[in-house]
Amino acid sequence: MSYNKAPSITAETINPKVKIISYEPCGQIARHAERLQQEIEENPGSLPFQEITYCNLGNPQALGQRPITFFREVLSLCDNPTLLDKDETPSLYSTCAIKRARMIMDSLPSKNTGGYTSSRGIKSLRQAVADGISARDGFPSDPDDIFLTDGASAAVNLMMQILIRSSEDAILCPLPEYPIYSASIILHGGTMVMSITNQEEIVEFCRKEGLVILADEVYQDNVYAENKKFNSFKKVARSLDYDENDLSIVSFHSSSMGLYGESGRRGGYMEISGFGTDVKEQIYKVASVTICPNIAGQILTSLVMDPPKLGDESFESFQAEKEKIHSSFWKRAKVCNLHFIRIDVASLDTGTKNTLEKAFQSMEGISCNKIEGALYFFPRLHLPSRAIKTAKAEGVSPDIFYAHRLLDATGIAVVPGSGFQQASGTTHIRCAILPDEEKIEAMIPRLRAFHEAFMKEFRR
Q1: Is Transferase among the key words of this record (predicted)?
Q2: What b/e string do you get for 300-330 counting C-beta neighbours within 10 Å, with b at 16 or more?
């Protein structure tokens, strides 16, 4: 006998908050890029380009960035501890990596990387993170205020669970934003509004109003602007002579999206300051629901915050690899700045001036802030009304319309700005600077040619 049984659950009966959130900033473009990549492989020469340039991905190692040797040596030794007792190991690994791996293995509860740990993470690794924060900021950090997490995203979600009680609880969030924030806020029942941006103003505002600062600091090593450096919100607050009792701050960091690009390792931490013991206990309880963060991510996070020091065998090679990565990002950011930002050519050196005379300083219908850090630029598009009407007729927003046309014509994949809560009435695209320097150099003229043709087509 057969029954016409209705599904146990449908899209109409799941948690309504899940249906509200939008967490697919790269979705449509990414899927279309995959289809085009398959077309290139199956039918070479069928498209007007030979490869996809993935400027939609914030995934450094997937686009060719090499991992730091010291990090991988330590991770390898910890996962294969028998190597620590073999005679040939010193010739394969640096003594610095061997020493660090032994220290880590001695601190593991089960003496291997396959067992559970404390829900906050291994104490010695939290100490390494705290020491790194203290050295960076010049103010003390307590390992008991450190929670190691599966990337910064897990930490953000944990704090949303702790802080949001109802839709009357609002989170001030700068725009554009990374979608984890709007998605987490909505999923946990809160409301998102826009914030002020100056650090000292934010600190003073939050102190007066009794608000918690949630500081996303994952790009602290990705600073390219001259005469500028990273300052944590905790450092800013302490520099204003606020002590822990004056202001609650949660700082997030990750090994995924910053300079090192270890995205798949899912390593991160949050430092909580200005919270009472009773609140810390509740945070620990919620963290315990997921048992513990993965051990490889914990180890990697400790290495990011406590890398080889001057005098260590691995110091020079580590610094050289780190500087090579940073220099490459700086060069890619400079190329994009030269093409998208209006510049006083007369103030530049002769070589750069000659290069610029052959390039373009700005494009019609595009405005963009200078790239001073992180991995992206976020140009604003001032599109002709005819393009906006055409997009509406096709049932898509102007940014999606533009991004799809760009991908189909050039193979350049970018992300529509609507995936990042762009300001109402504006149109943007987000473009990562992660493809290698040669691809960035080759991409810019193609993007320029496409944009000029697009504007000419829809300006008529």
Answers
A1: yes
A2: bbbbbbbbbeeebebeebbeebbeebeebbb
At 274, list the tokens.
């200005």
Distance (Å, whole) CA 21 – CA 179:
9
Bond before 81 cis per omega within 30 degrees: no
Q: For 434, which DSSP code?
A: -
Cα 307 from chain centroid (whole Å): 20
| CA distance linking residue 179 with residue 379, whole number of Å | 18
Q: What is the dihedral of CA 154, 157, 162, 165, to 10 degrees?
A: -170
What span, in angstroms and rounded, lies between the C-alpha atoms of 209 and 164? 17
Sign of torsion over alpha carbons 437, 254, 176, 61: positive
Q: Give the domains, in start order, of the chain with CATH numbers.
A: 16-64+323-459 (3.90.1150.10), 116-305 (3.40.640.10)
Task: Please tell me the distance from the alpha carbon of residue 85 to that of residue 64, in angstroms, as a whole number.
Answer: 33
Of 324, 403, 380, nearest to 53 (Cα)?
403
CA gap 67, 261 in Å, rounded: 8
The structure tokens listed for 7 are 């599904």
Question: Nearest to residue 146, comparing CAs of 126, 125, 122, 117?
Answer: 126
Taking each helix axis from N to C end, the angle separating 437-459 and 398-410, rounded to the nearest 10 degrees, works out to 120
The amino acid at residue 65 is Q
β pairing state of 53-54 and 412-413: parallel
Residue 251 near residue 275, CB atoms below 8 Å: no
DSSP state of 242: -
Supply 267's token pair.
Answer: 């390593």
Would you give per-residue pLDDT tens digits along the chain (460 residues)?
555 666 777 777 777 777 776 655 557 888 899 999 999 999 998 999 898 998 887 777 777 788 999 999 999 999 998 888 877 667 788 889 999 999 999 998 888 888 889 999 999 999 999 999 999 999 999 999 999 999 888 998 898 888 888 888 787 777 766 656 566 666 667 666 685 568 888 899 899 999 999 998 988 888 877 778 889 999 999 999 887 788 999 999 999 877 888 888 899 999 999 999 999 999 999 999 999 999 999 999 999 999 999 989 899 999 999 999 888 888 877 777 766 654 444 444 444 333 323 333 467 787 777 777 788 888 888 999 999 999 999 999 999 999 999 999 999 999 888 877 777 788 888 888 888 778 878 888 888 889 999 999 998 6
**Number of helices (H), then strands (E), in the chain:** 17, 13
